[in-house]
Amino acid sequence: MTITPDPKVENGATFEILREDHTMGNLIRFKLLEEPQVIFAGYKVPHPLEHNVILKVQTTNDTKPDMMVAKALNDLITEVGYLKQKFVEELGRARALVIPREQKPMEEQTPLGIPPRDNIPIGNTGVGVDMDF
């Protein structure tokens, strides 16, 4: 990430984030705009074939843009960690609800709802096609 202070805008800076796209740019922008110290936050992807995001941030006089971007990134890391934790917990609950099939030798197992092979009619199946070879 490269940070370039904006000489035309007080407390403004441009951040170039390499190897990222709209997903990361929009997440950071959204997090920044939740903060009352952020006056402006916007991003663009210069070209669809370039995987870079250019993020522009302007803050109030009591903070700096790089500090607010760092806070937004830390908040996002915390949120993603929380989501991962909840996902793993729910996955564990879902796995506990699955009742494993009775363990039998492979020859004796039948798929659920499908009759065993010895009950399948051979020959005239009644569908207009004679399967006798």
TrEMBL record:
The molecular function terms of the Gene Ontology recorded here are: DNA binding; DNA-directed RNA polymerase activity; protein dimerization activity
Record keyword Nucleus present: yes
Q: Give any single GO term for biological process.
A: transcription by RNA polymerase II
Which compartment or compartments is the protein found in?
Nucleus
Query: What is the predominant subcellular site recorded for this chain?
Result: nucleus
Q: Name one GO cellular component term.
A: RNA polymerase II, core complex
InterPro entries for this protein: RBP11, RBP11-like, RBP11-like_dimer, RNA_pol_Rpb11_13-16kDa_CS, Rpo11-like
Any idea which UniProt keywords this protein has?
DNA-directed RNA polymerase, Nucleus, Transcription
Domain DNA-directed RNA polymerase RBP11-like dimerisation: start-end pairs = 13-85
Look up the coiled coil feature and give its residue ranges: none
The family assignment reads: Belongs to the archaeal Rpo11/eukaryotic RPB11/RPC19 RNA polymerase subunit family.
Please report the name of this protein according to its UniProt entry: DNA-directed RNA polymerase
Traced from the root, the source organism's taxonomic lineage reads: Eukaryota, Fungi, Fungi incertae sedis, Mucoromycota, Glomeromycotina
